Amino acid sequence: MAIADWWPFRRRKKKSLQSNVNVYDVNQRVYTPVAQLKLGMYVIELDRPWLDSPFLFQGFELQTEEDIRRVREVCEYVYIDVTKSRKKVVEYKGSQENLSLDSIADFPPPPPKLSVFEKEIDRAEAVYQEMGVLVADFMERIARGEGVDTKAAKAAVAECVNSILHSPDAFLWLSQLKNKDQYTAQHSLNVCALAIVLGRHLNFSVSNLNLVGLCGMMHDMGKMLIPLEILNKPGKLDDAEMEIMRSHTSLGHELLKSSKDMYTGAIDTALAHHETLDGKGYPRRIKDKGISLFTRMVTIVDIYDAMTSDRVYQKGRTHLEATGILSNLSGSQLDGRLVVKFIEALGVYPPGSLVQMTNGAVAIVVEVNELVRLRPKVIILLDPEGQPVEERVVNLADMELDRRGQVLTIKSIVRPQDYGIDIGKYYRQGVLQKGFAYGRS
């Protein structure tokens, strides 16, 4: 079942104080015989208790004919929420100028993955490394007073788009391999990839994925014109230093304007990615409709990657902490619709996350199961006693039982440093290859 309504703040339910039963406004809740179900409808109630049905989540969108068939097999009628149901399912193929900010919530579901993690990870790693070298070279050239090689940047983004369309999980996994000493270059690379992941979730055309990815890659190039003693200062910046740091938006804007054949949207995003919907951002204090769709997207993923990265002056936050902060900024500073879509795109447990299992074991998330997003594929690293084990991939959707006979599932996301785990070291030692090889043996 294609279900994406796991995030608590998305629900529009009201609690009855007397019965503690979910109820809906009569204008939203519509009785619908299963013979009348159509793609895009959002099911909120069945003709039987949810626990007596095969559906894992209470509330889901009918995204495929298979979804409709499964509902018809167990129900005679359901109730749909007309405010969440989409009137038509179409793919948005136009340029950014043809993408409506008001229609974000109505975008169709993302396309199916073209491959699987195991087959894509080697190519994704090669693309990621090449892009890392390219971004670092861009930044060195800028620091020397030279311009950006737009043609090379566009070619690199196109490779990234192709890899993410095959398996977004592979690139998301690689984005977790962060080095605080290379933060600025890795940040630009990760923002590029995360913007493309979000664009894929919005079902952007390939051309639009290339454009939003370029916006992400170029957004912080102006930082290379900031003095290193300010850019890398381990402590809090004073007011004068902060003013200089904030000038990276205007500096990046001018730099990209002077770069041959640079996409105008990327030039705009370099200037505006610190603007907020309430008009309290910088440098121009523009707000709401003055901020383009691609810039809104880059702003969200920029904040997320910055929050989840170790910096010289702070430890990175967990995925759950970061998405909680994004949700708190929704509506006032960030586009709430895009925040929801971004969290959906990453999932509850993004690839590369370290998690503790319900039996106490520690594992790393490998690949999201898009039909059962709370049950990804993981590689067990430590047993319940905290001892290293032979790495193996476990597909939690298979409902494997632990030693107590309980279904093995994820308890929470944890910090690698709390368990003495260096994800980068595990990766270099071939943890992924070993895990998948175990499953084939």
From TrEMBL:
Q: Which InterPro entries does the record match to this protein?
A: DUF3391, HD/PDEase_dom, HD_GYP_dom
- Give the CDD domains listed for this entry: HDc
Q: Where is the HD-GYP domain?
A: 162-358
* SMART domains named in the record: HDc
Q: Name one Pfam family in it.
A: DUF3391
Q: Which PANTHER family match?
A: CYCLIC DI-GMP PHOSPHODIESTERASE PA4108, CYCLIC DI-GMP PHOSPHODIESTERASE PA4108-RELATED
Please identify the protein, giving its name as recorded: HD-GYP domain-containing protein
What is the organism field in this record? Answer: Methylomonas aurea
